[in-house]
Amino acid sequence: MHGNRRYVKSRQIGVGAALLSFLVALLPAAPARAEIVTSARSEAVLAVGRDGLPRVAYVAAGELHVATRRSDGWQDEAVEVGIAVRAGGIVVDGRGRVSVLVQDASKILLVRRLAGGWRIDRAAPALPGRKVGLAGIGLDARGLPAVAYGLQVGSTRATFLRIATVGRRGRLVTAAITRGGFPSSPVPPAAAPVLVRGHLHVVEAYAAAAIEWQPDGRRWVGQFLFDGRIGSISGRVLSIAVGSDTFTATALASPQLTEGNHPQACPQNAKSAVEMLIIETSANCGQDISRPLDRPLATP
Predict the structure, then answer these.
(1) Which of 136, 166, 256, 276 has its CA 20 to 30 A from that of 123?
(2) How deeply is 33 buried, as exposed, middle or buried, from its count of CB atoms within 10 A (0-12, 13-18, 19+)?
(3) Phi, psi of 268 (to 5 degrees)
């Protein structure tokens, strides 16, 4: 426990199980049944709209499939997106329109269902020497999709955090959250947008730390949510807001500790454990969150 912030770690078998456990914990227990949406072997994402209809998105053979569960069964639509990408997130707005994030290691696409059909925008186009981390998708105060992602250029450890939102003419507008290569990380950070009291925040997870960024006039300021010092964030970041409080889930891969609570001495023989990390950030913790961690407040 650090100040007014709480985080919980619990050992899990894998990254997917950790994130799924977080989502299931938010739902009340109720009788359920399982249905086969597709036989394709692909990573899939799920969202439920205000109409109560579940949507599942996945990529197979270069096509993005969006399946909707209706009274007569699952109805599937397909959009060509490229064979290398995979589904990374899905949201449904108040009108039931679906937006799906798909990506690979170098580019991020936003696929949206509009009145005239499907539209594909490049949230992060592929550029030589550029790598992107696991991106996240959410809805802004207008009910339009927003995509947050981290990137690296070349072989440096410098990172850059970006957020892409829908502009007035329907095109994506990208804004810089961090500059100057902060924070340093061996791999591009994972990121996720979250709507808090009508304003988009972005949670960034890198190395063994996580930062929540929020707008402050023309700049962004951040507060450390977690700094594990040992291990590395593994997998996507999920974040939701309840009032002014945010709840963030990700997975932390860390070396197993000995009984003396020290890392194992032989790296070649050390084992890694994947743990679920759930972070609750209270609105009244303010910027003092950085003090117990002995780290300065993160600013771009």
Answers:
(1) 276
(2) exposed
(3) -70, -20
Question: Is residue 120 exposed (0-12), middle (13-18) or buried (19+ Cβ within 10 Å)?
Answer: middle
CB contact set of 79 (below 8 Å; sequence gap of 6+): 63, 64, 66, 111, 118, 120
Q: Extract the tokens encoding 243.
A: 């009032």
Q: Which residues pair with 145 in a beta bridge?
A: 139
Token pair recorded at residue 158: 């410098």
Q: Which of 212, 196, 94, 100 is nearest to 142 (CA)?
A: 94
Give the pTM: 0.80
Q: How many CB atoms lie within 10 A of CB 285?
A: 17
Q: Residue 196 has which token pair?
A: 């808090």
pLDDT digits 0-9 by tens, 161-219: 999 999 988 999 999 999 899 999 999 999 999 999 999 999 999 988 999 999 999 89
Q: Residue 4: which residues within 8 A CB-CB, separation 6 or more? A: 282, 284, 285, 288, 289
- Show the tokens assigned to 213: 């960024």
Res 289: pLDDT: 33
* Interacting residues of 31 by C-beta distance below 8 A, sequence separation 6+: none
